[in-house]
């Protein structure tokens, strides 16, 4: 199992009240224990400047209706190729895609989950970098639906 996945799972636990996470697979077993008394103190800074506006606010109502966000259906490491060993990107911003086109894969503890497009359209944004951890519901792509 990759260290990135373990670090990612641990970071999720730090933000919850869960004290133990146990994952069992055919060939391995992972148990992560957490001591809630050792929570990290996060630094908070107060800025007098106006907070940045959300990206969604910049999109007009008309164009917002045509945008579709493809989100992760699992936890793992995202790869923009056909497999984790494939270093070429399947798509780039501006590409036209069809429904069910392969956009990448997510390595979830050795199991490769395909990321396919549920809509046809044009790739407006790629919101995730290659070989980065994702969680369930993490936005991956924004597609302008045709």
User: What is the second-level CATH architecture of the largest domain?
Assistant: Beta Barrel
So what's the oligomer here? single chain
Count of all domains? 2
* Main sheet strand line-up: 3-10-8-5
Binned strand content: 25-35%
Look up the CATH topology of the largest domain: OB fold (Dihydrolipoamide Acetyltransferase, E2P)
Summary keywords:
elongated; 10 strands; 3 helices; 4-stranded antiparallel β-sheet; 2 domains; alpha+beta; OB fold (Dihydrolipoamide Acetyltransferase, E2P)
Short description:
With 146 residues, the chain is α+β, with helices and mostly antiparallel strands.
Task: Outline the fold blueprint.
Layout: H1 3-14, E1 20-24, E2 29-33, H2 55-58, H3 61-64, E3 67-71, E4 76-79, E5 96-97, E6 102-108, E7 111-116, E8 121-126, E9 132-134, E10 139-145
Antiparallel strand pairs: 1-2, 3-10, 4-6, 4-9, 5-8, 6-7, 8-10
Q: What do you see in this structure?
A:
With 146 residues, the protein is of the alpha+beta class. The termini are far apart. The chain folds into two domains: 3-38, no CATH class; 65-145, OB fold (Dihydrolipoamide Acetyltransferase, E2P) (Beta Barrel). It is built from three helices and ten strands; from the N terminus they run H-E-E-H-H-E-E-E-E-E-E-E-E. Strands 3-10-8-5 form a four-stranded antiparallel β-sheet, with no helix packed on it. Strand 6 (102-108) and strand 7 (111-116) form a beta hairpin.
């Amino acid at each position: 199992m990759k260290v990135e996945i373990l670090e990612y799972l641990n970071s999720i636990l730090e933000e919850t009240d869960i004290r133990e996470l146990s994952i069992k697979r055919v060939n391995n077993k992972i148990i992560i224990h957490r001591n809630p008394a050792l929570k990290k103190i996060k630094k908070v800074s107060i800025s007098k400047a106006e907070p940045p506006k959300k990206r969604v606010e910049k999109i007009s109502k008309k164009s917002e209706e045509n945008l579709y966000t493809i989100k992760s259906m699992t936890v793992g490491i995202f790869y923009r190729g056909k497999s984790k060993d494939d270093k070429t990107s399947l798509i780039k911003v501006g590409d036209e895609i069809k429904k069910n086109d392969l956009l990448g894969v997510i390595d979830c503890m050795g199991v490769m989950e395909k990321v396919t497009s549920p809509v046809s359209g044009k790739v407006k944004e790629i919101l995730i970098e290659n070989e980065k951890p994702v969680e369930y519901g993490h936005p991956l792509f924004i597609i302008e639906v045709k």
